[in-house]
Write a structure and sequence with these properties.
The chain is mostly beta strands. The protein is 8% helix and 48% strand. It has helices at residues 14-31, 86-89, and strands at residues 34-46, 52-68, 74-83, 102-105, 122-132, 135-144, 164-167, 170-173, 176-183, 189-196, 205-218, 225-238, 241-254. The strands form two sheets. Strands 3-2-1-13-12-11-10-9-6-5 form a ten-stranded antiparallel beta sheet, covered by helices on one side. A three-stranded antiparallel beta sheet has the order 4-7-8, with no helix packed on it. A hairpin with a 2-residue loop joins strand 5 (122-132) and strand 6 (135-144). The protein is globular. The chain starts with 13 loop residues before the first helix and ends in a 17-residue tail after the last strand.
Length: 271
Amino acid sequence: PQIYPPSLHDALPISTVLQSVSQRVQQLVANVDRYTATENMEHFELSPTGQTKSRETRRFNYLVEIRHSAKGELDVHEYRSGWMPTEKIRGYPLRTEFPDNIETAGLAMLALIFHPDFQPRYDFACEGHSSWKGRPAWVVHFRQRPNLLDSDQSGSDQPDSLLVYKVNNHSAPVPLKGRAWIDADSFQILAVESDIVHPIPEIQLMRDHQLIEYGPIQFKNKPLELWLPISADWYAQLANHRYHRRHIFTNFLLFSVDDTQKISEIGRAHV
């Protein structure tokens, strides 16, 4: 990737930060073949002034599978099976579809932007030293490179963006720009914030803003700690509608370590 020179107030060059965070992401991929979690979702339709017009909830059994394809490319798949809260489905068929028939895929895996397989698709710049919820952190800006916004130019079967929208049976990769907060000591990714590079007219997407937060997950009776997504907030203006969707991930289970071992519960409220 193109590396911009750091400003004078940066104590570390961007190349050093990228190399260190890349090592952390590679360690995650090496330790994870697949994991499951409970995904609790709140979905809000908003008025033009940001007031809540409607609220829906979903709960999914969520599975992420990370593997390399036959071409050696990193390949991530998400699977969901779900249900609605009991009070919403009494007397009606079980509903498992996404609210408003909008499926968001790839939200939880934005950290892979820093994996060596994906770094060449982005330009990076270090914005300096900051903090995330009291933890010292480096802030790294990223933007998808213009010559890769057209997936036909990549020479790959994979979408160039790690975010893909599925709206009314139509899929569209969404090019991203944003920033990440990288722990100054461990170089673990604390959070990733992203926006779209440009509107996507074929799906009438005018705005997309995301904030993904990661947290350390401790295994019972295992000397292993992994940083996995624990929450994701998504805001969008899509087909003249405005949405906010919040995902909370709990009850993690890592299959590559122990098929029956549950990761300790994250201290967050369910939807």
